[in-house]
Design brief:
The complex is a heterodimer.
Chain A (H helix, E strand, L loop, with lengths): L6 H13 L4 H19 L5 H17 L10 H19 L27 H10 L4 H10 L4 H10 L12 H12 L7
Helix pairs in contact in A: 1-2, 2-3, 2-4, 2-6, 3-4
Chain B lengths: L14 H17 L6 H14 L2 E2 L1 E4 L10 E8 L2 E9 L3 E8 L5 E6 L2 E6 L5 E8 L2 E7 L6 E2 L3 E2 L1
Parallel strand pairs in B: 1-10
Antiparallel strand pairs in B: 2-3, 3-4, 4-5, 5-8, 6-7, 6-9, 9-10, 9-11
Classes of the chains: A mainly alpha, B alpha+beta.
């Protein structure tokens, strides 16, 4: 993540500006955080439709609650938790029936993506090692990959996997992936 | 379930971890990208929520079309209110000629990064010049009613 400021700080700044009356900053906030929220929902095996609905609902709730949010720094975690809960709720309602759409794997975990999607050898190597991990680890890493490093700890904690009380430690999932990659001669990151 | 020991799990993140996470983000972006119109739809839902508006339905015409250098009309309806807009498209800009079933209503045309507001005349007619091409939606305000918001059309 090559962002200059941490995601949480950028989000807090945009949200504060929005609450001070600059509506365009809400668009910025949506553009900034929607990839993280998309992968949060999809990592829970939500269908595309459920993921989209859950994310829209979370944003509408944020706007409805915007006056009562006292700590703008907490909105990333707030949105992640809201998307996750709403995803679960919608999946329960749908009886977890999630049909594949248009030939694409319904969740990434269900199938090996086509070579057409993974363009580089590096991506194929990474994908192979990711698939050796437990589903829980895949879900966690998929989400924190979209949070810049300083936000790693708080996002992981939000997902129920605290990664250290002192600083953002690597955690078991990333440590496993890292070890696997670094001992694979075809990986040279 | 006992936590298994994984070497390095308790170490602080370093630049190699950052690189792995960045590659992982690219990988998932390639495999399962955010749908291209999701941001647009979130923005619309938020506009509706913020305005506490009623949503008008498209009753005639199409939301997305290859319009080129042409003229096209769409009609939206919400309760007793109808709004008809005709778009006249040139290379970079769009003119909107509109008619709303409520004389003196205030009409916003909301395009990317720009909002133009006009007041319909006694016959309900209005005209908006010089909108950028792209998505545009309309908000109609009348005294004593909730605002009415239309879905976006592509112009």
């Amino acid at each position: 993540m090559n962002t200059t400021a941490p995601l949480g700080a950028q989000a807090a700044a945009a949200f504060t500006d929005y609450r001070d009356g600059d509506r365009d900053r809400l668009r910025d906030l949506v553009a900034l955080l929607t990839p993280l929220l998309w992968h949060t929902a999809r990592s829970q095996r939500a269908s595309q439709q459920v993921a989209e609905d859950a994310i829209q609902t979370a944003w509408v709730r944020l706007v409805d609650a915007s006056d009562s949010i006292t700590d703008p720094k907490g909105i990333v975690s707030w949105l992640v938790v809201t998307v996750k809960r709403e995803t679960w709720r919608l999946m329960r309602l749908a009886g977890r029936e999630t049909a594949p759409e248009g030939g694409m794997p319904e969740t990434v975990d269900d199938a090996t993506p086509e070579d057409a999607v993974l363009r580089t050898d590096e991506q194929r190597v990474l994908w192979r090692h990711v698939n050796e991990l437990s589903e829980r680890c895949r879900a966690l890493l998929r989400v924190i990959a979209f949070a810049a490093t300083p936000d790693y700890a708080s996002v992981a904690a939000t997902l129920g996997m605290p990664v250290g009380s002192i600083g953002p430690t690597r955690g078991r999932c990333l440590a496993k992936l890292r070890t696997a990659l670094l001992s694979d001669p075809s990986w040279e990151a | 379930m006992p936590e298994e020991f994984v070497p390095g799990a308790d170490q602080l993140l370093d630049a190699t971890d950052d690189r792995i996470l960045a590659r992982l983000a690219s990988l998932y972006s390639a495999i399962d990208p955010v749908p291209s119109d999701l941001l647009e739809r979130i923005d619309f839902s938020l506009a509706v929520a913020e305005l506490e508006a009623d949503i008008a339905e498209l009753t005639r015409g199409e939301l997305v079309g290859v319009r080129g250098e042409s003229t096209d009309s769409v009609t939206f309806t919400s309760g007793s209110l109808s709004l008809m807009v005709t778009t006249v498209v040139s290379a970079h800009h769009v003119r909107i000629d509109g008619w709303v079933t409520s004389a003196g209503a205030e009409v916003d045309a909301v395009a990317e990064g720009v909002t133009r507001t006009v007041v319909a005349d006694d016959a309900g007619r209005f005209s908006i010049d010089d909108l950028p091409r792209g998505h545009v939606h309309f908000v109609v305000r009348r005294e004593g009613y909730r605002p009415v918001i239309t879905p976006s059309i592509e112009v």
